[in-house]
Amino acid sequence: MAFSRRGLLAAAAAAPLLMRVEDALAQGIQPKRGGTLNSIVNPEPPVLHVGVNNQAPTLIVGGKIFQGLLRYDAKLNPMPELARRWEVSADGLEYTFHLQENVKFHDGQPMTADDVIFSIMKFHMEVSPRARGVFARIKEGVAVNPTTAKFTLSAPFEPFLLMFDVTVSAIVPKHLFDGQDYRQAPAVSRPVGTGPFKFVEWQRGNFIRLERFADYWKPGQPYLDAIIYRVVPDSQSRRLALESGQVQLTQSNDIEPFDVPQMRARPNLEVKTEGWEYFGPLMWMEFNHRVKPLDDVRVRRALTMAVNRDFIAQRLWFGIGKPATGPFHSATRFYDGTAKSAAFNVEESKKLLDAAGLKPNGQGVRFTIKHMSLPYGEVFTRLGEYLRQSFRQVGVDLQLESVDVGTWAQRTGAWDFDTTINYLYQYGDPTLGVERSYVSTNIKKILFSNVAGYSNPKVDELFTQGRDSADPKVRQAAFSDVQKLLVEEAPLLWLLEMSFPSIYDKKLQNVITSGSGIHACFDDVFLA
Questions:
Q1: pLDDT at 350 over 80
Q2: pLDDT score at 131
Q3: Which residues pair with 323 in a beta bridge?
Q4: What is the CA 473 to chain-centroid distance, rounded?
Q5: Local structure of 479: helix, strand or coil
Q6: pTM, 2 dp
Q7: What average pLDDT does this structure show over 307-324?
Q8: 269 alpha-carbon distance from chain centroid
Q9: Other beta carbons within 10 Å of 385
Q10: Burial of 19 from C-beta contacts in 10 A (0-12 / 13-18 / 19+)
């Protein structure tokens, strides 16, 4: 996908409100008011505030409580949400958002341009390390009037309009955060947004209950009375709950990939893998470059060659996703298919390890490292076992560690690991979702930053060129070069371009209607 100035201006001028309900009417399905949607969240999120936590379960539940200025279709074209329309100046410096009228927060206070300016210029600048780098480009943000917010950039920034999804920059109530510690404010534990559903109850380890917000700004919506997210740690219990009708919707990691073929065969269930276009999730094995011998590029390349990514995609994920070729998801802008990681080759892997001076001992072991499994379901346990077997073939002893979600997040963010599995969203543009994992300026003790500790001045320079240019051709050249350099240095072991299944009862309508899929606010979802 490529943006053009003309295309952006045309989108701003047209920007029709997507009438998803009309799609249902066209099919002869009348939207029905009432009913409770029972779903699953797995694993249980640490908090529900999408601003202070960006883990996948938080974004799924929080996307019903909060909203962003925009949302995006499957081709990443911006569409109205809290902003009903917008304009971009001819020089690409000024972005003016005209807000929906009569929008209220769940505590009854009106949402105004002041809340928008606070959310972007202060709140997300503080709590979001990824958004901070982009929003730092804003020279000035002003509330022109209660329903108009204007941002002036210090220099043109081509992907700026991709920054306003709820999962990136949710609009938060200024009156509940201003002057407080944003991460510790009471509104973090009892979130208040503008979304169609308000937070009501959370019984830890059991369920999260959201209820219809009576003063929601879209007349007559939402259709559902409530959404209950049930916490079900056991994968087979989740499958049984879906098959028995106890829940009507599962998503993301809820159903193990090896169970999906059986779900497809059930006549009452719909299985969709669309709705991840905005995120472009890419999974990799994280190498801690502070741990020897992972600081040696020959070792990292050898480990890359020891792994059969086709096996992972087909035998572990059952075709839900496809093998990763490098640091860019193929759906991400400026992806270069000629820059590919070293292919699976056990003998070449051994030769590289020999060249690195790592000879096998009497037990055939060259060195031992630990692997902290990602606690997001049984498939990741199986992945760890497969990686251990693969590395053993080349003389590397991979010792598996099992931890809970909180421990995994804490240890990964604190650099307390040898290797682990992670997957990050790329948000359509390398500056927004790829750069953060590789530039030396983002080596921080913060989850989803450059926790590997990889550093290369040339990589920093190329990402800067791609970030700062307004010319798509210049950006393509810089990002092609950075992909080629990264696959040579193998700072991470890229495994899978992920695509998660959303599985739901066919009575549930309008589930996947945008490029952000099940993260959407669900104001038009109903039970037929």
A1: yes
A2: 86
A3: 496
A4: 27
A5: helix
A6: 0.83
A7: 96
A8: 25
A9: 15
A10: exposed
